[in-house]
Write a structure and sequence with these properties.
Helix content: 10-25%
Number of strands: 14
Strand content: 35-45%
Distance between the termini: 47 Å
Number of helices: 4
CATH architecture of the largest domain: 2-Layer Sandwich
Number of domains: 2
Radius of gyration: 21 Å
CATH topology of the largest domain: Alpha-Beta Plaits
Oligomer: single chain
CATH class of the largest domain: Alpha Beta
C-alpha cells in the first residue's frame, strides 16, 4: 500500500470530549459526515421519586471516529471536542478487532445485567439500600436472598443494581 493510500484509509481513532458532551459531539461528528460510534450502556439512576434506566457512555468523555487521518484534525474545530487521544506521539489507532470486542461486550452485558450469585442493592421502596444475593432471575423480576432479614424477596429488575456497578 502506498503512502497516499494509507492516508486515505479509514481508521478508528479516539477523540476526548468535554465532560457530559459525548452525545452532542457524536451528533456533530455525524453531521460533519464522519463515521462515529459512542458505545452506550443502560444503567439505573435513582431520583427521590423514581428509578429510571438511562443510556450512559461506556467510556465517559471518549468518542470513536472512523476517518482518514487528514480529516481527523478538522474534527478538533467542532464544539465539545477537546483533543485527539495520542499514543507514542501519534493519534491512537483502535484496531477493528478491538472495536468488535467492545461491541460483543455490550451485547453480552445487555443480555446479562445481573447473574445468579451476584450481590445486588435495592434502589427504591421499603428496602431501599438493602443488598442481597441474587438467587433467580425472571423476565421482569429478580429473587434476592437478604441475609440480614433471613428472607427471600422478589424485586423488579429495574429497581436493583449490581453492587460493583453502582455509582
Amino acid at each position: 500500500m502506498s503512502k497516499l493510500e494509507k492516508k486515505k484509509e479509514k481508521i478508528w481513532y479516539v477523540l476526548y470530549t468535554a465532560p457530559r458532551a459525548e452525545k452532542q459531539v457524536e451528533e456533530r461528528i455525524r453531521l460533519a459526515g464522519v463515521t462515529c460510534w459512542l458505545p452506550l450502556h443502560r444503567a439505573p439512576r435513582v431520583w427521590s421519586d423514581r428509578v429510571k434506566l438511562v443510556d450512559l457512555p461506556l467510556f465517559p468523555s471518549y468518542v470513536f471516529v472512523q476517518c482518514e487521518t487528514y480529516k481527523l484534525y478538522d474534527l478538533l474545530r467542532l464544539t465539545g471536542v477537546v483533543r485527539i487521544v495520542y499514543y507514542d506521539g501519534k493519534p491512537a489507532v483502535v484496531q477493528e478487532r478491538e472495536m468488535d470486542a467492545i461491541r460483543q461486550f455490550l451485547v453480552e452485558a445487555m443480555n446479562h445485567p445481573l447473574l445468579e450469585g451476584d450481590e445486588a442493592e435495592i434502589l427504591c421502596g421499603a428496602l431501599k439500600h438493602v443488598s442481597g444475593k441474587v438467587r433467580h432471575i425472571r423476565k421482569k423480576y429478580v429473587v434476592l436472598y437478604i441475609e440480614q432479614l433471613g428472607a427471600t424477596v422478589s424485586v423488579k429488575l429495574d429497581e436493583v443494581a449490581a453492587l460493583n456497578r453502582l455509582r
